[in-house]
Design goal:
The protein is an alpha+beta fold and 187 residues long. The protein contains three helices and ten strands, in the order E-E-E-E-E-E-E-E-E-E-H-H-H. The strands form two sheets. Strands 6-7-8-9-4-3-10 form a seven-stranded mixed beta sheet, with no helix packed on it. It has a three-stranded antiparallel beta sheet with strand order 1-2-5, with no helix packed on it. Strand 6 and strand 7 form a beta hairpin.
Length: 187
């Protein structure tokens, strides 16, 4: 059986909808980068894209969003570097261990104002559980055998997650509405 992600392989642990946030840490043994979140994550999901940080051996990342004003780098900010300055999501990673601490959109975009984070980097429990799996077919682009994609989708369905080769329908609707408003097609 394939390993999706350590948080998913043995089933999903439900989060606490009233979770107030916590602290994320990079993987450095000394002087880790520390990011404090003052809210729970939303739209938490498994992501198969090639850009998101994944723990060793995982096919998918688990990533959610928080409002930009609910994220603060609270220690060792000087260690952070943007992974790909040309990417829409500017992923800020520790320059020593490579762990992505947060991703921020600085350009005009429907998700500008939301920061992408990996709540698994927090020792606190209660974060929103994954809600769906996105960009599932993208793991093929990273070398995964296409003949085994049924096994991947079956495993997601067994743990109660719907699989998409984009984002979830409500998030895709948000993106489409943003584009339509920007073009004037929707008021």
């Amino acid at each position: 059986m394939v390993s999706l992600h350590p948080l998913l392989d043995n089933g999903i642990v439900k989060g606490n909808p009233d979770h107030a946030g916590g602290t994320l840490y990079c993987k450095c043994a000394s002087d880790p980068v520390e990011v404090t979140l003052s809210s729970n994550v939303a739209h938490n999901h498994a992501c198969g894209c090639s850009k998101c940080w994944k723990p060793a051996g995982a096919l998918f990342s688990v990533v959610g969003v928080v409002p930009r004003d609910k994220l603060a780098v609270t220690a060792n900010e000087s260690k952070l570097r943007v992974v790909d300055p040309k990417a829409t999501i500017q992923r800020h990673a520790c320059s020593e261990c490579g762990t992505h601490l947060y991703g921020r959109i600085e350009v005009d975009h429907a998700f500008k104002g939301l920061d992408f984070v990996h709540a698994e980097l927090s020792p606190q429990k209660g974060w929103q559980e994954p809600q769906f799996a996105a960009f599932v077919s993208s793991i093929i682009e990273q070398g995964f055998d296409p003949a085994k994609m049924g096994e991947v989708r079956d495993k997601f369905h067994q743990i109660g997650l719907e699989t998409y080769d984009c984002l979830s329908p409500p998030l895709m609707d948000l993106l489409a509405a943003y584009t339509a408003k920007k073009s004037g097609a929707l008021k």
